[in-house]
User: What shape does this take?
Amino acid sequence: MKKILYMVGVLLMVMGTMLSITHTEVQAASPQLSAKQVLMRKGQTFTLKLKNAKKVKWSSSKKAVATVKKGKITAKKPGMTTITAKSGKKKYKCTITVTSGKKKALIIYFSATGHTRSIAGKLAKVTGADSIRLVPKKAYTSADLNYNNDCRANREQNNNAKPAIATVIKNIKQYDTVYLGYPIWHGKEPGVIRTFLSMTKLKGKKVIPFCTSGGSGISGSMTHIRKLAAGATIKNERDLTGASDEEIKEWITNN
Ligand SMILES: Cc1cc2nc3c(=O)[nH]c(=O)nc-3n(C[C@H](O)[C@H](O)[C@H](O)COP(=O)(O)O)c2cc1C
Assistant: This one.
């Protein structure tokens, strides 16, 4: 009897191990593109990686703007193109913005629900500056932003978190002015902005912050912006919620 029980025990252990291996395989990390937004100058190269994937087929929606070979992107002429990495039936996309390399001003913005994006678009039109969107590695869902005490945005703001970002700016050196745009979250800048400032050297550049908000204004974000953009000249910050082209024009003439 003892022997039978022992054998059953061993059998269960083997089955358990097999099940846990299968489980691990099912749980294998899903493929992830190393960047989702890239800003690069004509002539530059940048290599994208699709992590946790084996056979990857790469393509560019506008080969005249940038080509891609085994993930290596070569910027050909100013414009935008989408790089697609196909693994099995799934597709992963990255937007590439190629610039002329001649502009001195860059608009860098984060926008979760589109307001700051719309202002950044007007600002690009009025200034003629290059523009790039900061995107988090893990996109914000509506539940992440729902104002509940334990929602992701709230937790990140309480902890001054720096969530990983999936935007790469290859040519930051060429710019002497950076317009930095963001929504106000719980009185201050969102975590994506803290991450960006912590990993980017803006020393010697002019940084002009702008925001959109539900009424709090930009002042609550300025302590962190000043601290994190060390060595930059920070000036003329403005809440541009609902601003017209004319108001933006007036603002930039004072910058
Ligand atoms: C998580 C979260 C927190 C917010 N906190 C504030 C706040 O403290 N003060 C304020 O005036 N507006 C706040 N808002 C409103 C946004 O600042 C405003 O809607 C902004 O225009 C959104 O910009 P976007 O559409 O570019 O993301 C908050 C919005 C969200 C989603």
